[in-house]
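Hey all, quick one. A colleague (J.T.) asked me to put the nicotinamide-adenine-dinucleotide job into the tracker so the inputs and the structure tokens live in one place instead of scattered across chat threads. No bug as far as I know, just bookkeeping. Sequence used:
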Amino acid sequence: MNINNVVILGAGLMGVGLAQVFARDEDMRVTVRSRKVHDEPYAPIIANLNLLIDNDALSEAEKEGVLSRISFTDDMPAAVANADLIIECVPEVMEIKQNTFADLEPLTRDDCIYATNTSVMSVTDIAKKCVKKDRVAGTHFWNPPFLIPLVEVVRTDDTSDEVVDSLMEVLNKVGKKPVLCRKDVPGFIANRLQHALWREAFSMVEKGIADPATVDRALAYGPGLRWPHLGPMENADMTGLDLSLNIHSYIFPYLEDTHEPSALLRELVAHGDLGFKTGKGYQTWTPEQIERSNRSLREYLIRVAGNIK
Ligand SMILES: NC(=O)c1ccc[n+]([C@@H]2O[C@H](COP(=O)([O-])OP(=O)(O)OC[C@H]3O[C@@H](n4cnc5c(N)ncnc54)[C@H](O)[C@@H]3O)[C@@H](O)[C@H]2O)c1
């Protein structure tokens, strides 16, 4: 199915970011529907586009093109009547997401695809109150969505092949790197990988094996450096599965395998040490360091994201 008319529900951080992603493509018309249209709805998108211009990744003409393809409205029936694809970016609350989709069904075309940007929730449960469950899938974008290429397309047992194919196609068309998660499992693919690593990182800090900055440094100058080009599956084949088997047989008993969040993490949160939000988490942070960290991450992503194979 050709997707040209995209509706985003929710004008928060992810909603406006997704609007910007789709509006990069000249064939798209993007409508952002929110309960109330704020005074300057384009402001966050303009800030993102200006960052790209400042880093020579976008022209002024392209910026104007993107902005011209996005509109904002509070009128749900008018917004969704002719939508090809609707992506919900409303709060991460199961009932809100379920009702959002169920309420849409009398308002949309039969072939309209419903996608949820949930970070962690079951797509199957989100589709539970829908009559046509085969049109529902997950599209898990990563923040900031205009800079991170990955989108996890999550299918449920009910999602049709046509819906999956259309989503993969449109995401490729707008310049994303979609991956298909064939089962609706918690964490999908990338968060399962990410939090398996974080569990070990938090555990090593708690056990005093290394301090927080050292853990990050070990990753940044070692395995993290090659991951965009050499993931674990290709790496295992490259070095030999017999070696993987020997290493896993030896090391697995020593790796963190708790099913509970780290005790030190609980302690810090209970103490009100939340990280950048409070200036102290695992480490202490000045406002200048926080500003620098946020800015340099974005500039780094602009430089590398286009070069990942
Ligand atoms: N923030 C992230 O890093 C990130 C990353 C990936 C996925 N997500 C997911 O994307 C979704 C949106 O997250 P966000 O960070 O943009 O949130 P947000 O709080 O910035 O935006 C939520 C939007 O929903 C609107 N809203 C609030 N209550 C509502 C209701 N009852 N009905 C309809 N709309 C309502 C708000 O006005 C706002 O426009 C969530 O499911 C979140 O888990 C977030």
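Adding what we noticed when we looked at it: The CA atoms of residues 147 and 300 lie 10 Å apart. The mean pLDDT is 96.
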